[in-house]
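Mods, move this if it's the wrong board.
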Amino acid sequence: MSIKKFEPLKFIERSPDEMTVLSRSFYDDMKRRRSVREFSDRSIPDEVIKNAVLAAGTAPSGANMQPWHFCVITNPETKRKIRMAAEKEEKAFYQDLAPDKWLEALRPFDTDENKYFLETAPCLIAVFLKRFTVDQNGIAQKNYYPAESVGIATGILLTALHISGLVTLTHTPNPMKFLNDILGRPDNERPFLIVVTGYPDKNAKVPKLNKYVLDHIATFD
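Not the wrong board. Structure tokens:
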């Protein structure tokens, strides 16, 4: 998408105290974000999902090419097809393909090839990466830094769903080509991951995790 003109920046300047309070509040909220596998089947407002996807679409991208597509799936039959296809790939992974060290790393999380949450959760969002974009005249345009761009957009999507009051799980069966077939997406789009979202089950539990402290993940010069 080309830039046709420039416009004034809509910037809101805040005092140092405001900035500190807002940044700390955001951090405290995001600390509560967890990957959840036990979902309620309660329906969620369509508008919330639409707003979260729109927020994801504000992500920066190489040359503003916006190389993403989000498929929102709530149809039970489609979710069932996705679960069956994903479990087929996951069974091969857990039983034949995964290195022993990888399985050992996954063991504390008590995961296996059974992906029931793909049906239980009310909403799946399949994120696709566009390696190139085809315009209305059938001309292909290369997208720049698509993986980085789609990764940022997905992070914003997860954050938007979290602050809206929903829980999420990122699911990455490998390979995921079945998503193109089930969802009718073209070959220039590659499945990036599935975001599972909804309300948590009333008895949902998550592993007790420790996150690295600041000195471990950052350096300041």
